[in-house]
TrEMBL record, chain A:
Residues 2-143 form the Globin domain. Involved in oxygen transport from gills to the various peripheral tissues. The keyword Transport applies. Heterotetramer of two alpha chains and two beta chains. SUPFAM superfamilies: Globin-like (SSF46458). Gene3D superfamilies: Globins. This is Hemoglobin subunit alpha. It holds the Pfam family Globin. One of its GO terms (molecular function) is haptoglobin binding. GO terms for cellular component: blood microparticle; haptoglobin-hemoglobin complex; hemoglobin complex. Belongs to the globin family.
TrEMBL record, chain B:
This is Hemoglobin subunit epsilon 1. It comes from Pygocentrus nattereri (Red-bellied piranha). Residues 46-190 form the Globin domain. The keyword Heme applies. Keywords: Heme, Iron, Metal-binding, Oxygen transport, Transport. PANTHER family: HEMOGLOBIN FAMILY MEMBER (PTHR11442), HEMOGLOBIN SUBUNIT EPSILON (PTHR11442:SF7). The keyword Kinase does not apply.
Amino acid sequence: MSLTAKDMSVVKALWGKISSKVDEIGAEALGRMLVVYPQTKTYFSHWADLSPGSAPVKKHGKTIMGAVSDAVAKIEDLPAALSQLSELHAYKLRVDPANFKILAHNIIVVTAMLFPADFTPEVHVSLDKFLQNLAWCLAERYR
Amino acid sequence: MRRSSNQMGPGGVGLWVFKLQTGILILQGSSSSGHAETSKVSNMVEWTEFERATIQDIFSKMDYESVGHNALTRCLVVYPWTQRYFGNFGNLYNAAAIMGNPLVAAHGTVVLHGLDKAVKNMDNIKATYAELSVLHSEKLHVDPDNFRLLADCLTIVVAARLGSGFTPDVQAAFQKFLAVVISALTKQYH
């Protein structure tokens, strides 16, 4: 399900609207994921505090969304944009790719909560496709 | 499911094991010497007070028509392959057409009211949905993965409505509830 030109412009337009809250979305989505899908906590046993709003969660949420924002800027060539991060996830982090879907779902939930009027079904489908493509590129180097 | 039973031995110490068609497993034991050793194992879902209260609260305040319509519309737009089940709904050509389609609106309400059964029978969702499960499998031929897609859309619509009220714990309770419903609806597929 490749991104059409329309998907790309919809995602870029959405990012224009949400850019001021991108860090908050990241922190909230990550925190939520750790609560709603407790199995994801297994990747963060080195953190002192895994609760929503905690310092490590906020920091890491910001890191993740920073990378997602970067991908939006380079949306025309996601494989190239994500090549290095894919190596990191494949060889070092080894996060099971099923979790990309879980985090994507939570990013979508939080976006819907914070921007209910903007997050129409058409915007939703483009963002869903974008996150799916992003996840696919992130898993590219896994095997 | 197979039926199996172990009979009580002499002396009053008994261990009954019944595996019923509905899948409820009950294990009970009692001793004749007075101190009862009971262990109850069942595959009923366990709900915390918070989870029960959260589900009742969300549904008591829900605008069924609006939420049902929006959730189903979103599902048909975001996951267009789900339109395969609605061939007789007429115009589903684009998001605007889907949103404006009265059959979609009506059906969204039907689906959401279908969740009422589970809300009112949280301790027996599996049995409550046995008939609906057969219907979705044998008559409607719905791939059960679609239940998950619709559930995700419903979660997102409710999240948008509740805003900050949709805390992580509320989300966890709501998604758990939907997961149990999905499991029950999938149960009779073979």
